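Below is a filled-in request sheet from our internal design queue. Each sheet records the structural input a requester submitted and the sequence that came back. We keep these sheets so that new team members can see what a complete request looks like end to end.

REQUESTER: design group, bay 2
PRIORITY: normal
MODE: inverse folding
CHAIN LENGTH: 261
BACKBONE (tokenized):
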């Protein structure tokens, strides 16, 4: 999918794809019809194998930026290349259909793509196993915990084999222990799939634990005011959160965030 607004889209798109850049925003701006200036002149490039978290004060335009990347919202300025059609999006809410089982929900996207039933069954089962929901295939959403619903939502997006995976604060409403477990599982999936990830969160610790880069946005209109490389190995254990280097990094990100608020 390309949503470029510049004069030479094909050339730029090929250049981005060659460098593995799946999302490239240049000077992206968003002013809503209500007069709210949500996003101000954002430059953001995300390559395959990068997991970029966006942190920033509430209302600074993080979700808006993600929705623009997904093509759910049309920017009012700047340009953007998205060099893939395989985009996964996980919302804050699991958005499961209550009348469908876990398998039925996970199959939904591939069903909308008109994939043959055996193919979508196979993809759904693989995704269900990837998120650790095996044994619950026939359960309905009302029979699942909040964490399990989120796993099902993640599995549904995984069936699309996303190359660009966008997450809008998916674990915000989940208790801390389950959230840490889901962070570990998402990291494992990222290591296996190597998509380009953009993850919106309010938690600095979650951002630093999951990401290869943490981008800090200012208060609205959201601008990028900090971009931190995360130096830890891809193979991260929960104990990393207690590491002195981890505390130093989250401290620096927190300082940047406080100055930006
Ligand atoms: N469709 C819309 N029409 C008008 N204003 C909107 C629309 N969507 C978002 N906004 C406004 O744009 C600003 C940015 O909203 P957005 O949801 O992107 O912020 P956020 O950083 O994700 O917030 P939070 O961290 O609280 O979820 C807010 O002031 C919001 O009210």
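RETURNED SEQUENCE:
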């Amino acid at each position: 999918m390309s949503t470029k607004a510049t004069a030479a889209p094909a050339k730029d798109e090929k250049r981005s794809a060659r460098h593995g850049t799946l999302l490239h925003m240049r000077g992206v701006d968003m002013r809503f019809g209500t007069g709210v200036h949500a996003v101000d002149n954002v430059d953001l490039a995300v390559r395959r194998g990068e997991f970029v978290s966006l942190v920033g004060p509430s209302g600074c335009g993080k979700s808006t930026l993600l929705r623009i990347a997904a093509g759910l919202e049309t920017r009012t300025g700047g340009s953007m290349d998205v060099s893939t059609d395989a985009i996964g999006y996980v919302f804050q809410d699991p958005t499961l259909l209550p009348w469908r089982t876990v398998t039925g929900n996970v199959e939904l996207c591939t069903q909308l793509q008109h994939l043959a039933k055996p193919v979508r069954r196979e993809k759904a089962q693989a995704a269900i196993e990837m998120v650790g929901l095996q044994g619950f295939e026939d359960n309905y959403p009302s029979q699942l915990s909040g964490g399990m619903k989120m796993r099902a939502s993640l599995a549904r997006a995984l069936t699309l084999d996303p190359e660009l995976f966008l997450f809008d604060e998916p674990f915000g409403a989940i208790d801390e222990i389950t959230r840490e477990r889901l962070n570990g599982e998402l990291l494992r999936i990222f290591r296996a799939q190597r998509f380009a990830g953009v993850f919106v969160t309010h938690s600095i610790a979650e951002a630093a634990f999951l990401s290869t880069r943490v981008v800090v946005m200012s208060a609205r209109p959201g601008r990028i005011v900090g971009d931190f490389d995360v130096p830890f190995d891809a193979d991260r254990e929960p104990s990393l959160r207690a590491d002195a280097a981890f505390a130093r990094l989250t401290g620096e990100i927190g300082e940047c965030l406080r100055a930006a608020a």
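SHEET NOTES:
- Residues 32, 34, 36, 38, 56, 58-64, 220 surround adenosine-5'-triphosphate (CB under 6 Å).
- The chain has a mean pLDDT of 90.
FILED BY: M.R.
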